[in-house]
Amino acid sequence: MDKICGKVISDTISFAEFKDYDGQIVNIKGYIHRIREMTGFAFVIVRTSRDTIQCVYAPEFSSYRWDDRLCEEACVKITGKVVSSQDAKGNQRFELQIHDIEILSLPAEGLPIVINKKQLDNIQLSTVLDLRPISMRNPKERAIFKVQEGIARGFRECLMQNGFTEIRSPKINFAGAEGGTNIFKLDYFGKQVYLAQSPQLYKQALVGVYQKVFEVAPVFRAEHHDTSRHLNEYTSMDFEMGFINSFEDIMNTEVMVLKYIMNLLKTEYKEELDILHIDVPEITEVPTIKFMDAKELLMKKFKYQPQDMKDFDPAEEELLGKYAKKELNSDFLFVTHYPSKKRPFYTMDDPADPDYTLSFDLLFRGLEITSGGQRIHDYNEQVAKMVKCGMDPEQFETYLMLHKYGAPPHGGLGIGLERLTMHLLGAKNVRETTMFPRDINRVTP
User: Fold this and answer.
1) Which whole number is the average pLDDT over 316-329?
2) Most Cβ neighbours (<10 Å): which of 61, 76, 184, 305?
3) Distance (Å, whole) CA 116 – CA 72
4) pLDDT of 163-200, one tens digit each?
């Protein structure tokens, strides 16, 4: 009887390993990305999970003879000799002299779009999204989501190195965490329940267990918008931490995480950064400004008359981003002490001025990417604020267990992964940095 031991033995190598196999015969597997036939020989560009590898076919290299079935997007295993050379700048380059090509599968028909250029040219975003399983094979499209991987990975690694526990909160909930009407309702075996707007209620509960927790998971907002910066399902990177001294502890933790993420991208995702021409920000310290001071700044410095004195519109955020960059030499700006009426029921009011909260948003190059703040931890204070907000505390009995049976001073935040990726790349639409977007018009593919 055969047995599976769990040891994976690969018969191929990656392009990164070519330097260790110079002059040797190796195997690679991937898609034929492009074929360029020349007089007496051909270049075969093979696309692997992260690289495009130049392979050269010529009859003198081996007894292998060209198979006319070979075409773009054929899956192949290529055996060949690793050959190195130097480019005009003296950098070492590698290619593979083809000794054999084994066809693993062939496409049933030709591609509906051209993907083997550096980027998808003159193709509408709607078409790119309709053909997402194919369009993502383009090197630039693929690189976007490797960078996104690096952002989420950096978030996770940094927090785990600093004593945070990763959690998994349910996405079918008894009530909305953020309140309001932007919540998806579900018929759950005859009972009305809701898709999670955030993991807020659960990460607060688990602060009472692990003290510091985080989650990277989808959240859902039933908002009837169709803008370039909103989705109805997106990935939220959340953390919550207990026994804080002030909400500045949360802000300091976020700056620590962002520094880690940016350094990880520069060291381990350089290839993707180069493909996408990403300007990774240098982070030392992040300046802060209070909400009302920011409003006053907008009116005095920029002669901008706000329409809403309880929140910022996109134009205001953009102006604040320009101010932070020009005057403070920072790509980031914390805006603190948002009005109590615009923050969720669990946000702690400022004892010095209860009309405002111990909360913040983080703007990155003029776009809000984070909302966070200190939470109410006293049971009576939380119940009183629920009543003030028109809520029935009895419907939140399980949530209030944390407060009733002892909660530490705590707080946290949420970062929109797709939105952060979008602004880091300088993309115009958040759908460009979402693998399979879900908005008011799209639920496929």
Assistant:
1) 97
2) 76
3) 9
4) 999 999 999 998 876 666 689 999 999 999 999 999 99
Bridge partners (DSSP) listed for residue 32: 46
Binning pLDDT at 50, 70 and 90, where does residue 9 land? Answer: confident
Provide the CA 117 distance to its chain's centre, in angstroms: 25
pTM for the complete prediction? Answer: 0.95
Contacts of 435 (CB under 8 A, 6+ apart): 132, 136, 145
| Three-state secondary structure of the chain | CCCCCCCCCCCCCCHHHHHHCCCCEEEEEEEEEEEEECCCCEEEEEECCCCEEEEEECHHHCCCCCCCCCCCCCEEEEEEEEEEEECCCCCEEEEEEEEEEEEEECCCCCCCCCCCCCCCCCCCHHHHHHCHHHHCCCHHHHHHHHHHHHHHHHHHHHHHHCCCEECCCCCEECCCCCCCCCCCEEEECCEEEEECCCCHHHHHHHHHHHCEEEEEEEEECCCCCCCCCCCCEEEEEEEEEECCCCCHHHHHHHHHHHHHHHHHHHHHCHHHHHHHCCCCCCCCCCCEEEHHHHHHHHHHHCCCCCCCCCCCCHHHHHHHHHHHHHHHCCCEEEEECCEHHHCCCCECEECCEEEEECEEEEEECCEEEEEEEEECCCHHHHHHHHHHCCCCHHHHCCCCHHHHCCCCCEEEEEEEHHHHHHHHHCCCCHHHHCCCCEECCECCC
